[in-house]
Structures are given as C-alpha cells and as structure tokens.
Specification:
The structure holds two protein chains of two kinds.
Chain A lengths: L10 E2 L2 E2 L11 E5 L7 E7 L2 E12 L12 E8 L15 H15 L10 E11 L4 H15 L8 E9 L2 E4 L3 H6 L2 E8 L5 E4 L2 E2 L3 H31 L9
Parallel strand pairs in A: 6-7
Antiparallel strand pairs in A: 1-2, 3-4, 4-5, 5-7, 8-9, 8-10, 10-11, 10-12
Helix pairs in contact in A: 1-2, 2-4
Chain B lengths: L1 H7 L3 H12 L15 E5 L7 E7 L2 E12 L10 E8 L14 H16 L9 E3 L2 E13 L4 H15 L1 E6 L2 E10 L7 E8 L2 E4 L3 H6 L2 E8 L2 E7 L6 H23 L1
Parallel strand pairs in B: 4-6
Antiparallel strand pairs in B: 1-2, 2-3, 3-6, 5-6, 7-8, 9-10, 9-11, 11-12
Helix pairs in contact in B: 3-4
Classes of the chains: A alpha+beta, B alpha+beta.
C-alpha cells in the first residue's frame, strides 16, 4: 500500500474517483433466498462486489467429537473465486487471507447467534465472493447477517458492516478497490444495530486517535444505511407472493 | 457424513409416490418424461472475468466465468493455447456438498464439460499462440451455486454461454492488458449436454434431485449441431436401443437448448 500511495489522485475537486462524496455508500442491493436448497441465503451486490452467502443448520456436527454439549458451533468459510478480480486467474482453495477473514467473520456472529439453544450441532455459514471490488469482508458480514435471518437462526441483534478509510488524505466511507489499493488506510467495521457494539474491527495504515473516532462515527451512520437495505430485502422476500427472477 | 447420507436417502413413502405417478406417465413435478425444467441464461454477470454466464435449469444454478492468462504451452503442442476447466461444488449449494478439495463428482463434471467443449472444437486453440513459450490459457470455472438436480447440463449450458460472452484480451509485449479487448471469442459450435436417467422402466430427461436419488442408470450425452461431442455414463447400465433413443432425445433437446442460447 505505502509504496503506491499518492500516485493516483483519489480526490478531485472534493469528489471521489467514482463521483461520490465522502459519506456516500456505493449502490447496495440485497436479495434474499437465492439458494433454494440452503436453509437461508442472500446475494449482495455492493458497488462492484458480488457475494453470495448460504447458511445450513443447526445440523449434526462433523466431526462429532468436535461438538459441544452446551452450544452450537458456528463455522464460517469465506472464499474468493479465482475469477473475482480483474488480475490473473488466482488459485482456488483457502489462502492465508481467506482463513483469517473466515475467522473474523465467524467471531462477529458468535456474539449474536443464540447458540445455547442448539447443543451438539453446528451452523455453517458459507460465503463465496464471485466478483470483488474492495470491501468484500464487510459485504460478506452484511450478506451473512441476512442469510442467517433468512435461515431463522435466533440472534440477539442484527449486524451491518462497512469500511471507512483514508483516501487522498480524506476520511471516506466504503472504499472501492482503487481507493483501497492506493489509499492510506482501511478500517472495516461491523456494528450491531440495537446495541451499537463493534463486532468487527481491523485496521491498516496510520491514523490519529481523532481520526479513528471520526471513522467510527462515520461507520455508525453507514451501518444504519446498510441496515435499512438489509431489513428492506428481508421484508420484500417475506412479502412477495410470486417468485421473482433474481438478477445476478 | 451425516448430511451426505441424508441427502441421498429418500423416504420409502416418497419413493412409492414417485413410482406411482411415473406409472401413470407423469413425473413428480408434473413434467413429461422428455421435458426439461424451465431454462434460463443470463450473460455477463461477472465484470472481472473475460466472459461469464449464469445458467439456470429449474432451481439448479451454475455460474461459469472465463479468464485468460499467459501460460507456457504443453511441450507436445508448443503452438497451441491451453484450456482448463475446473469446477466447485460449493458447500452453500446443497446440504450434501462439503468444503474441502474437489471430490470425484466435482472432478467428473469438470471433465465432462471440458470434453464437450474441447471435442466440439468450439474454441480454436491455435489462435491462442503469442510467441515461443507463450500462449493464452483459457480458464473455465464452473461454480455450482444451487443443486436441485442435474448440475451437469446446467454447467455445460452456462459454460457455452460464457464462451459466447468471452472477450479476447489485448496483448502487448507478451502480456495481457487487463480491461482492454480486441474482439469476441465467438465459439463456432454450441455444445450442450443432455442428461437422462432411468427410474424403473422409464427414461427421464433432466432429472430433479428426487429423481437422482432413486435413479438406476444415468447417461449424459453432449451434442453440437449434428454431432455427439461427449458421452458419460454414470451409474447403472443401458442397452443399445436405449442408447440410440437417448441420443435421439439428446439431439432434440440439445437443439432446443441451442435455440435458447442463440435467442
């Protein structure tokens, strides 16, 4: 990141490269129930990101000796498809990055799911990134929350997620890939809707204390907007009578 | 393995009802024996790929994306490009799919689709030559997103549609300039596969998940305009007459699907 920063102007006349203001989110569209075989599912198109999430469970724990008699295990797999980026065809399968992201996403939902209700079981959250454009982990959390709700898994709260970063020296919400690659910092947040707890927080780059606080406040406002789209998607799904064709 | 077993085993009551309806000449879901579920194709769904398509047969969903890279040619074909087909039976697509390295089913579908595309000669690999030791590699990734039966035909449908959607990358100094294109790949043939299964004495085209659970024989036939381009027998056995009938059906249904691809 540091080596390439500043080479590309990210703020021109107070606007970002895609014409947004600092607090504008990219277009966000959520569809519920896109995987009929799954217990719950969601598709998220967020800027140039296309992410699909399928939830199974609670179901029998595999391997069985890993099961807990006290609560359901939450298992999460985040995967990037080999065709998800504009660059070369990448290798499929887990990478160090996807392993870490699977873990931090799981830790978001371990705070929310009422796992004590389902001892000796597991809940699988599968997330596949079909097309990536910066901010896939926050889009993944946003998708998984909707898919879990669609699966009828009891949760203490809903969660929305968005990243705030620093691009061209300015704090900006929901960085796109260009801003992510050439910006100075990227801080993904996931915030629970009612409790206002931060459930995911990572950071790279250099920031002052005030900047971090300001970013959290921006993230809160952003997460509220994301939550509205999530709630609207779920309402639309349960209200609609006829099956509508999903636009992928 | 619990879910794998649950996914395969069907209750005997359900099996009886299915056999009863079949004996009346109708399928569980009301289709005729040689009828496909509704078929849909949506092209250009992945902008980061050079080509892509979402194939849908009934509820079964397969996304196929194509990407080009500069690779070394195989030593026995130094002037020809390379085509690689991979598949992912994503665990989100079915309670029976599990994470982990590709299993035999996943490898089989990738190889069947690969054979159908390759044998149809719909892609001219000799046009992928760049310079000595450098050719274009075309990756065809099959992503099964929802498995409600017959992902093989859905995958071939989406793969052919993705090839029709594939743009040729601009090459400068032996490198691909990403995001710039010189034209379309334009596949010369449109290979599709038709899968048929035998349940009791009946041959059923485009099996649903329920029908797959009870099938005795499974046969997949790939066709182009006028040619068979791939065949793969799965479980069970079939007679010569049955094979001939299967081919006739495969051509008819194959032409139907080609019309959808062209339309």
């Amino acid at each position: 990141m540091a080596s390439s920063e500043g080479k590309i102007p990210l703020i021109i006349n107070g606007k970002r490269t895609d014409g947004r203001d600092m607090e504008d989110l990219r277009n966000l569209r959520i569809e519920v129930g896109v995987i009929p075989e799954a217990d719950g599912s969601a598709f998220v198109e967020w800027g140039g990101n296309k992410i699909v999430c399928g939830v199974y469970g609670p179901r029998e724990c595999i391997p069985r000796h890993g099961a807990s008699p006290y609560h359901a295990l939450i298992k999460c797999r985040y995967m990037m498809s080999p065709f998800a980026s504009l660059e070369e065809h990448s290798r499929s399968g887990p990478s160090r990055r996807s392993t870490e992201l699977s873990k931090v996403i799981r830790e978001v939902f371990e705070n929310l799911i009422i796992a004590e209700k389902f001892p000796n079981t597991q809940i699988d959250v599968y997330i596949d990134v079909l097309q990536a454009d910066g901010g896939t982990r926050t889009a993944s959390v946003t998708a998984a929350a909707v898919a879990l709700a669609n699966a009828g898994i009891p949760m203490k709260d809903m969660v929305a997620s968005v990243a705030v970063g620093k691009a061209g020296g300015m704090l900006a919400i929901d960085l796109n890939k260009l801003e992510d690659n050439f910006g100075q910092s990227d801080v993904p947040f996931a915030i629970s809707h009612r409790d206002r707890k931060v459930l995911l927080l990572q950071m790279d780059g250099l920031l002052t204390r005030d900047e971090v606080i300001q970013m959290l406040e921006m993230a809160e406002r952003g997460c509220d907007k994301v939550h509205e789209v999530q709630a609207d998607a779920l309402k639309r799904f349960y209200e609609k009578g006829e099956e509508e064709a999903v636009k992928w | 393995m619990g879910d794998e077993v649950k996914d395969i085993i069907m209750s005997s009551i359900r099996r009886d009802i299915m056999n009863n309806t079949l004996s009346k000449g109708v399928r569980f879901d009301g289709r005729k024996f040689d009828e496909y579920r509704p078929i849909e194709v949506q092209r250009g769904v992945i902008k980061t790929a050079e080509g892509s398509a979402m194939g849908k047969i009934g509820e079964t969903l397969v996304l196929v994306a194509t990407k080009f890279d500069v690779v070394k040619p195989f030593s026995d074909r130094p002037k020809e490009g390379v085509m690689v087909t991979n598949s992912e039976l994503l665990p989100l697509a079915s309670p029976g799919f599990e994470p982990g390295p590709p299993n035999e089913n996943s490898i089989e579908v990738a190889r069947v689709v690969d054979r159908a595309l390759r044998s149809a000669e719909c892609v001219d690999l000799s046009s992928f030559f760049i310079e000595d030791e450098k050719v274009l590699g075309l990756y065809v990734d099959l992503y099964v997103l929802n498995h409600s039966g017959n992902y093989t035909d859905t995958a071939t449908l989406a793969a052919t549609a993705a090839l029709m959607d594939t743009k040729l990358p601009k090459i400068e100094g032996g490198k691909i300039i990403r995001g710039e294109y010189t034209g379309m790949l334009n596949p010369t043939k449109l290979p599709v596969t038709t899968t048929m299964v035998k349940v009791g004495e009946n041959w059923l085209v485009d099996p649903s998940r329920d029908e797959e659970r009870v099938l005795e024989t499974s046969m997949t036939i790939g066709t182009t305009e006028g040619h068979v381009c791939a065949m793969q027998k799965g479980k069970g056995s079939l007679s010569k007459d049955e094979l001939i009938t299967a081919m006739d059906i495969a051509f008819k249904r194959g032409d139907d699907i080609r019309n959808i691809l062209k339309g």
